Amino acid sequence: MIDRDPGNLHKVAYEKTKQAARQAGRCTILDADKLKRCLSYNLLLGDIPVVTLEMGEPYVVNEANVEYGLAAVWSVLTHSEMVEPSENLFCYPLPPGYGSGRLLAYWDRKNTRNATPRTGPRPRYPSFPCQTRRGLKRPDCPERHHSPAS
Question: Nearest 5°: CA angle at 136, between 111 and 67?
Fold first, then answer.
């Protein structure tokens, strides 16, 4: 997860943050909230690139999630030329459309069908058969253009 864009004054740090998030080999979520009292956002305001890796489930630690977390960090270090490259760079096994370095929007509302994001233009929503998973619009769903009621 990466924080909201802190603005043009911190563009270099934010671009490095997005790059590191893509290099981690995980699904990357852009947080829409401007959390002024959050450590990661304040690091960005200080021109320090920062990425938050969220692994596993709340209150659960399992070996697979620990392995994925270590592999993601190692991948970022490899891309930054801080460690010797391993045989294969890490890429978390994600459903089609969620990986490949895409930056996905995040909304904390359960039903995003009628919700509007806190920043940016109103998105187009998928047709009824498509669902949301943990607050994300499924990228593999076709978009449907709704016309205003007459």
Answer: 135
Q: What percentage of the chain carries pLDDT values higher than 90?
A: 9
Cα–Cα distances in angstroms (integers) from residue 19 to residues 35, 100, 113, 144, in the given order = 21, 12, 30, 31
Q: Which two tokens stand for residue 95?
A: 């459903």
Q: Is residue 132 part of a domain?
A: yes
- pLDDT tens digit string along 93-121? 777 766 666 777 765 444 444 444 444 44
Confidence tier at 122 by pLDDT (50, 70, 90): very low
| Contact criterion met (CB below 8 Å) for 25 and 102 | no
Segment 34-51 shows an average pLDDT of: 87
| 42: in domain | yes
The structural domain count of the chain equals 1
Any domain includes 62: yes
Domain limits for position 111: 8-137
- Candidates 77, 80, 7; CA nearest to 47 is 7
Residue 45 lies in a domain: yes
